Amino acid sequence: MIDLHLHIDGSFRPQTIYELAKEMNISLPADSVEGLLPFIQVPEDCRSLEEYLERFTLPLQVIRTPAAVERVTYELLIDLAAQGLDQAELRFAPKSCAGTADQKEIVEAAIRGLNRGIQETGMKAGLILCAMRGNSFEDNMETLLLVKEYLGKGVIAFDIAGAEIVFKTHLYADLFAKARALGVPYTIHAGEGDGPESIKAALDFGAKRLGHGIRVYEDPELMKRVRDEKIVLEVCPISNLHTKVVDDMKDYPLRKLFDYGILVTINTDNMTMSNTNLKKEYEFIKKHYHFTDEEIKQMNETAYRASFIK
Ligand SMILES: [Zn+2]
After folding, report:
1. Entry pTM
2. How far is the CA of 92 from the centre of ligand 1 (A)?
3. In its UniProt record, which GO terms are filed under biological process (predicted)?
């Protein structure tokens, strides 16, 4: 099993959040790990993206030192191996975790954690470094140059995450032109918070993979383009349910996109916030969208082929 779309800062152990907060003297809303869960996991009936994003507040307060980044990256690989995964692409935004350190120190810490995890588990894994929508051009360029510097040394690709509807994808043309010039592989979060225009911009930048991309269904012409250009969608069903990509999950277009011939893969996005894992995602789409084991196997094979890990 393989996960192509998994955020480190959305996927670490509640116990670790608790311990790091204690070490850092951060006041907690509850004095037990169980008590913390409502503050870091979305409720099953999550009503809005805001309610979802609130759950990042506490994790992002504690993942702000190189030591914390190394620890959570390592622990995540241990957890994924225990769940039966043999390959994973872990992503995070170094700037968001930098605290008083610089991005380079944070990336090196994540690589240390990654290498320890790979050694212990035998998994294949790599890091995708995310620029952030809303960050300065300089900060995002710094992230991109770190991808270039550490490519093949733990880092596998570049991405941009954050508030897609506020900071539109087309604003980042220069950043991705630079990524292309540097020969850095990338994926782009597009078609989650924003619609077809965002996806078109990402494709015009030359992206061959899209984070989510699910809102391609709103534009039949674009669906055809995505299919014909063999663009791979990193779909995260339970996260999409929580962030209200569609108003009603019975209208969720996963089955439609798959049957149309678009290359769909299934991923978790944020295991802690969404209280999910890859097996849960598979069960979810079997139950609600009647995917068969054979179809899930096919999506897994698509993901292996599309992986930035070679
Ligand atoms: Zn994501």
Report:
1. 0.96
2. 9
3. adenosine catabolic process; hypoxanthine salvage; inosine biosynthetic process
